[in-house]
Amino acid sequence: MFLLVLTYAVVVVAAGWHVIDRTRRTSIQKRIRSSASFGAEWTGICIRAVVGSPRELWRTAISVSARFAERVWRRRRTVAVAMLLFAAPVSVLIAFGSLSGSHQSFDDLAMQQNPVVAAVLDGEQLVPPAALPPEVFVTREASVDRMELATASREWLKLDPEFKRRLLLVFRAMENHGYRMALLEGYRSPERQRMLAQLGPHVTNAGAFQSYHQFGLAADSAFYRDGRLVISEKDPWAMEGYRLYGAYAESFGLTWGGHWQMRDFGHVELRRKHAVP
């Protein structure tokens, strides 16, 4: 809008300058020089008043304001026409925007550009995917990439409802890129968290009640391809998937473990105050 108004002002001034006669141009130039002289005089008076007393500053302000008002009143018709010319396009743009509904908030734009984000804003509810066969989680490959995976909880009902909704929306977004997601672990009991912490920092640095897993606000996920889990980021296909997964998760307000010092590409959590000390 600002650029439109500025362009309009330049066009009006340029067109008006070429339309008026030479006598009027000379008169305008004299007024501009007079105004510049008045501005310089006003600036000098203000400087002297500032370094002087407060009473002198007050008197100067009244005097300058009166002189300025007198000049504006003498040229009231010209000022009114100028104000009308410059106010007209702004009024038209505001009125047109109000009637057409063209003014959009950030959320409106996000909904139009990303249908998945729109689903979050609309409160769409999704159904968890069908559970994978138990034997998928006990293969040697899965055990290498995730310790104690066989005994992990994958019950969606134990997850916080809001976190579950956002995670399912991320899963659906990943499907649009050809990635089928698998929940490796959701809720984690304090006893299990304590046991995993005892295995060493390469597994987890969080003790009991120090992880969002204990509150149903975190989940570890991986990819399911050709009947098996693909967990390791050493697979280029999986690494690209994790980047997408992290981007979508963060767009829904989740924290992704791929940015941590000890990177956990499949981990996301919904952080809430007072949930973890």
UniProtKB/TrEMBL annotation:
Claim: Transmembrane helix is one of the keywords in the record: yes
Protein name listed in UniProt: M15 family metallopeptidase
Pfam families: Peptidase_M15_4
Phylogenetic lineage: Bacteria, Pseudomonadati, Pseudomonadota, Betaproteobacteria, Burkholderiales
Residues passing through the membrane, by range: 6-23, 79-99
Keywords from the named record: Membrane, Transmembrane, Transmembrane helix
Organism annotation: Noviherbaspirillum album
SUPFAM superfamilies documented for this protein: Hedgehog/DD-peptidase (SSF55166)
Cell division keyword on record: no
Domain Peptidase M15C: 205-270
